[in-house]
Amino acid sequence: MNTSTQHNPVKVPITVALGDGIGPEITTATLKILEAAGARIEPEFIEIGEQVYLAGHSSGIATEAWDSLRRTKVFLKGPITTPSGSGYKSLNVTIRKTLGLYANVRPSISYAPFVKTLHPKMDLVIVRENEEDLYAGIEHRQTDEVYQCLKLITRPGCEKIVRYAFEYARSHGRKKVTCMVKDNIMKMTDGLFYKVFQEIGAEYPDIEQERFIIDIGSAKLATQPERFDVIVTPNLYGDVISDIAAEMTGSVGLAGSANVGDHVAMFEAIHGSAPDIAGQGIANPSGILLGAVMMLIHIRQADVAERIHNAWLATLEDGIHTVDLQSEQTVKTVSTSAFTDAVIERLGQLPKTFKPVSYQNPTDQEITRSNYVRAKPSNKQLVGVDIFLHETRFNPDQLAEQLQSVDLGNLSLKMITNRGVKVWPEGFPETFCTDHWRCRFMAADSESSIKQSDIVYLMSTLTEKKIDIIKTENLCTFDGERGFALGQGQ
Ligand code: NAD
Fold it and tell me: H-type helices in 99-188, by residue range?
């Protein structure tokens, strides 16, 4: 069956959450437009967000809501408020990660001259990795002075997002994919992301490829956005630059996004619940509406998606704007509901100045793309251990002396760093030290492998001397390649 050309007469069940703040206003507006446009959907409403958090679910979502999401596999989500306080985990992150929504697709397009922007030619898509990086949420306080957040970057995570970005570029007629990383500093984590970009990029010779370090890349994005087409980047950088990019088009209220996984997909606005304007009836529903357009394409109702998107473009062109878009191009500033009615009135019309959009239903392959194939395990050798200590004498030479006075078994102390900088041997007195010390132990000749029991023995002798061990990290080689970074200054 060729699903790409078939109309689907059956109503598709979708899960809908109205959300918090402006969520109910903009989500209801969007559903009204979808209904008027003839979307063949059957919404199933769930409660998530602030009220659910306050009712005692620290994740902001109850079991019945998960059941609905796993049944319908399609989620239209209004923005939600995460209550402040350390007891609440971000529901957005939980949903994205639990359901494996690894690709966050965020188009940012300028609508000049009808929406005021400094960048009238901007038309780019940010493909943000959605499950990993600092968003693992693994944080610890380790000493009086030091807190840690783990940045996890995985090969499957990189392969899935990079392949998604190239496939997206190909299927959407885009010509270039730019990788943005900070691999000059994070050589192993961001370095892996870029390495995978190069490996997978080699399979797409028809797509131009480039890399920017995220700092200069963001600067170029802010001044010359028209030079970008598709940007693929790890989670945190993608989060930051996609809000900036949306705001540069005229308003953060304009951008929709898709969170795509192999099993479930979620569609939303990129902005939050905007509590400052909630209940006033002035919010721009365009972000979630464009998210819903992406949803309609995903459920193979490209005909409806096209009708809504063109009506929305025609509305902008006619100068009918919500207050966030107000400029000299505005003919009439309208409320959320009047904007909604204006879009509905234009269903069936094409924009006159903007190029009308034209959508095709995606193929099965375009919907499920990751196809990650696990490589066979490498030959892993244990060659040492980093032991992290809480120690308040703030004197690395004394610390080294104390450690070396202990029976270290088969290991010897090679280096001490503080916040990553080598302070022993031969540290500088100018280096500021905290109470958090990383002590590197390796086999006496540094080349040989060691045993787990060597580490256990070392830890037991250190503990006997009342040395406060916070944590350990094994030092390994993988197929002979070093699997750990050197200390700064080593
Ligand atoms: P925000 O995106 O809600 O608002 C930022 C600014 O943009 C505000 O001035 C707001 O009025 C304006 N704005 C946002 N959407 C608009 C729209 N559709 N029309 C007109 N103006 C709009 O960001 P925030 O204030 O930092 O966050 C508020 C809450 O939203 C927080 O609890 C945050 O955790 C949550 N949040 C949720 C999501 C999500 O559900 N996907 C995303 C980001 C933030």
Answer: 155-171
Is 283 near ligand 1, meaning CB less than 6 Å away? yes
Q: Which CATH number fits domain 380-482: 3.30.230.10, 3.30.70.1570, 3.40.190.10, 3.40.50.150?
A: 3.30.70.1570
Quickly state the pLDDT bin for 163 (edges 50, 70, 90): very high
Q: Which atom of ligand 1 has the smallest separation from the CA of 285?
A: 18
- pLDDT tens across 328-355, in order? 999 999 999 999 999 999 999 999 999 9
- What is the pLDDT, as a whole number, of residue 111? 94
- Taking the CA atoms of 375, 377, 379 and 384 in sequence, report the sign of the dihedral they define: positive
The response to whether residue 458 sits with its C-beta less than 6 Å from ligand 1 reads no
Residue 389 contacts residue 406 (beta carbons within 8 Å): no
Where are the chain's structural domains? 12-366, 380-482
Q: Structurally, what CATH architecture does the domain formed by 12-366 represent? A: 3-Layer(aba) Sandwich (3.40)
pLDDT at 57: 82
Q: Are 103 and 255 in contact (CB under 8 A)?
A: no
% of the chain residues with pLDDT over 70? 96
- What is the SS3 assignment for 160? helix
- With the most atoms of ligand 1 within 8 angstroms of its CB, the residue from 26, 48, 252, 321 to mutate is 252
Is 286 close to ligand 1, i.e. is its CB under 6 Å away? no
Give the integer Cα–Cα distance in Å for 299 and 14.
Answer: 10
- Whose Cα sits closest to atom 43 in ligand 1? 272
Q: Tens digits of per-residue pLDDT, 80-105?
A: 988 776 667 788 888 998 999 999 99
Between CA 239 and CA 222 the distance in angstroms is: 15
